[in-house]
Write a structure and sequence with these properties.
Order of helices and strands: HEEEEHHHEEEHHEHEEEHEEHEHHEEHHH
CATH class of the largest domain: Alpha Beta
Strand content: 15-25%
CATH superfamily of the largest domain: Zn peptidases
Strand order of the largest sheet: 5-6-8-7-9-15
Distance between the termini: 57 Å
Oligomer: single chain
Radius of gyration: 25 Å
């Protein structure tokens, strides 16, 4: 090492990590001594075979982060299993959010409860450096199938990453926030938090999501859910059917029209839904019917086009039956933009943990409100694989797989990979400067999350 670089890497007589580029400092050689990784055995303070009088500990930040995750393994896995065993739906994750935030508070994080005015949202902060990283955390479950999307794994991996980064935040000039985001499964917790300004000031946002495979840039479609209600008029279905207005028939017409529309949609467009109320009795003309539907498309612009065409189908149901139509829209979810620098850092980190990626491998398209975050911040949302035994997300078998040893490994690997990604971004001069400059150019995120 040249004299200039040595001086730049040392402050107060203590060696510091040197910026090494996208490959990351965790690729440097090390020895393990007395339970800790060091650049040389002589650096160990407690080992009797170390060089006499040596006190220059040179543990690399990435090695320290890995060790912290390993030290907290029992707590992280216990948290994952506790959330898994007690599933709660979106915006009602009272116990789950409290469990997550309490663990972070116990590890020295300053916790802001009820972020954005949402009872089950929080922001837990450690460090005070200029580079601000958000680790996104989810913990809501699905109706009927519990944690069949593995949000217990997401939550625990985020906690592990946050605790690991807190241990090196001051050294690396980081502020690390674990951001608890409720109701990803359709409620758009992150959208509401974006609109409230919770994500203002961050330079990057990271999270992992369990799938039956490891993937770097899974396909994420823009999406929007909505609730449909038809109002008709009751009548005796046998004696006086001519007096009724059949709200169930309105759904029949609408669904038939949607079926005919499908042949004219793009291959990446999706339309799907359920009827949640179809009437009250078989001998009464149904006057009140309701359903929940969703449309998806590659981009928000394409989504708006598909939604307009689908809405015409529901309007046709009202026209044909004589019922009135009411529509309530949920927040729009944006497509995911995967930041290439952060993806490269994550890949190196995950591969160092024994994970591998295949070109073109992965899931079909899904949607997440992390897409909205990625449209405004450099972000990643990689898939972390678990052994799902032939099942996939949103199936009961996948829910069972999210509380296995394979899922526990995903918690540990996910925590380490996220922490190493953030550390790599902090240590790479080019990436760090790019993230900081993007943050200074972006005045605010409020109001840009996109309801329409």
């Amino acid at each position: 090492m040249s004299g200039d670089r040595a001086a730049a890497a040392t402050r107060g007589g203590r060696p510091r990590s040197v910026v090494r580029g996208v490959g990351g400092p965790w690729r440097a050689s090390y020895v393990r001594c007395c339970g800790t990784r060091y650049r040389s055995k002589a650096a160990c303070r407690c080992c009797p075979t170390a060089a006499a009088g040596s006190n220059e500990v040179t543990v690399l930040p990435a090695d320290r982060a890995r060790d912290v995750v390993d030290e907290r393994a029992e707590d992280l896995i216990e948290l994952s299993h506790a959330i898994h065993a007690d599933p709660e739906l979106g915006f009602a994750e009272l116990r789950s959010s409290a469990r997550v935030a309490t663990v972070l508070a116990d590890h020295g994080f300053a916790v802001e409860w009820a972020a954005a005015g949402l009872e089950t949202a929080f922001v837990a902060r450690a460090g005070s450096g200029p580079l601000r990283i958000a680790i996104c955390c989810e913990y809501d479950a699905l109706p009927g199938v519990g944690h069949a999307c593995g949000h217990n794994v997401i939550a625990s991996a985020a906690v592990g990453a946050g605790i690991a980064l807190a241990a090196v935040a001051d050294e690396l000039g980081l502020t690390v926030d674990v951001v608890g985001t409720p109701a990803e499964e359709g409620g758009g917790g992150k959208v509401l938090m974006l609109e409230a300004g919770v994500f203002d000031g961050y330079h990057a946002a990271l999270m992992v999501h369990p799938f039956p495979f490891d993937g770097l840039e899974p396909a994420v479609l823009a999406a929007q859910g909505f609730e449909i209600r038809y109002e008709g008029r009751e009548a005796h279905a046998g004696a006086y059917p001519e007096l009724g207005i059949n709200a169930a028939d309105a759904f029949v017409v609408a669904q038939t029209a949607i079926g005919l529309l499908r042949q004219h949609l793009r291959r990446t467009d999706r339309v799907h839904g359920i009827v949640t109320h179809g009437g009250d009795a078989q001998n009464i003309v149904p006057a009140h019917t309701a359903g929940k539907w969703m449309v998806r498309a590659t981009t928000l612009d394409d989504l708006d086009d598909v939604r307009l065409r689908v809405m015409r189908c529901f309007e046709a149901g009202a026209v044909a039956s004589g019922a009135t139509l009411e529509v309530s829209y949920l927040p729009r979810y944006g497509q995911m933009v995967h930041d290439p620098d952060l993806v490269a850092l994550y890949r190196t980190a995950a591969e160092s943990l024994g994970r591998s990626f295949t070109a073109g491998g992965g899931a079909g398209s899904f949607s997440t409100d992390m897409g909205n975050v990625s449209l405004l911040l450099p972000s990643i949302h990689p898939a972390i694989g678990i052994d799902a035994r032939g099942s996939s997300n949103h199936q009961p078998e996948f829910a069972a797989a999210c509380a296995t040893q394979s899922a526990d490994r995903a918690v540990m690997d996910g925590a380490k990979a996220l922490a190493l990604t953030a550390i790599g971004a902090a240590l790479d001069a080019r990436i760090r400067e790019r993230l900081l400059s993007l943050g200074s150019e972006r005045a605010t995120l409020r109001g840009s999350a996109g309801r329409r």
